[in-house]
Amino acid sequence: MKRDGASRAGSDARRQASGCVVDPWDTGFVDLGGSQGLLGQAEGRTAAVVVAWLKEQTPAFRAGFEHVAIDPAGVYAKAVRTPGLLPNAALVVDHFHLVKLANDAVTQVRRRVTWELKDRRGGKADPEWANRRRLRTARERLSDKSFVRMWNAMIDEDPSDRILMAYIAKEELRRLLGTVEAGGDPHLARHRLHRFFA
Length: 198
Hints:
Blueprint: E1 8-15, E2 25-30, E3 38-43, H1 47-56, H2 59-63, E4 67-70, H3 74-80, E5 90-93, H4 95-118, H5 127-130, H6 132-136, H7 144-157, H8 162-181, H9 186-197
Helix pairs in contact: 1-3, 4-8, 8-9
Protein name: Transposase
Domain Transposase IS204/IS1001/IS1096/IS1165 DDE: 36-179
InterPro entries: Transpos_ISL3, Transposase_DDE
């Protein structure tokens, strides 16, 4: 869970560096925007672990949350939605994890198209495999030459254009998320995001 001052919190799983434990995942409770840093850590990655840690805190502490930023794990959403636990908190997923999911989708589409076209995995000689990192890279981080090389290779290799459609969708999602970070209307962004996924 990440907490911004007294208003935002989030949860993120961290793999333990050493030691032999039954459940190797911890849940960290972190102050996102304030000065408190790590608020706490609990062993496990379940809703029960999150709920138990939050219930150990004072009601005033829990009432101070306005936003809870989580990675897209259902167990964290379930915990945060527990009635009365965080009465003033809105649940949000951070931009990093949304973009990661979009990049994962591009990779899945690229792999699926390769299997359908070649009946095998991609390799060094395959343009869609050779451009896999460019497909996951933000457009503004690619040189024009690199972008054109990737774009033209995908047009030539994928007659269905599904790989480029996935790339464009990922970039449109990034652009939409960027408007919120730049101070855009969050309600409009939420509406567009809903339409994007619908």
